[in-house]
Fold this protein.
Amino acid sequence: MVEIQKRKTVGLAIASLVLGLFILVPLLGMLCGLIAIVFGIIALVQISKNKGALKGKGLAIAGIVLGVIGIIVVPIVFLTAALTYTARAVANKRCEANESQAVAELRVISAAAESYAAAAAGKYPETESDLINSNPAHLNRYYDGKTIAGYTYKVQMGATGYEITAEPAECGVTGQKTFTIKTNGELNEENCR
């Protein structure tokens, strides 16, 4: 009669697989991944030395593979996520800074136009050039059609008033909002499109 010998599964192979399953737990996953690799290698060595008497080669290999993923791939994924988050935060701060500067520039142009009108008995400048070429000059540079700090300016002036718009050069990248200032300094904003 042939006696069937029951093969025993190597405990380290099981431990390797179980530890490999912890790879998605931050920090703990890397440590577990390293231990899973070590346990998996030891289990494979034990299985190969005891030909036919021990089983668990597949479990050990799975544990090693998961361990490698935990040590190499998971940190890369977490690092990529962290860098993406940081990049978005920096971009949002840049947008906020650009928006603040756009509002400040609009207020400068508006103040120049109001100052001009006060000096000209209520008549507003006909063009942006009137603000620059007046004596004294009310403005020191042209804005119409220019892009400054991620915002493009459109200046419309006439004897009865003005409307100046600052629009992000690239919506969502250089700014989130479009700003318009009208006669008497009335500032409006809306989300850019």
In short: The longest strand covers residues 151-158.
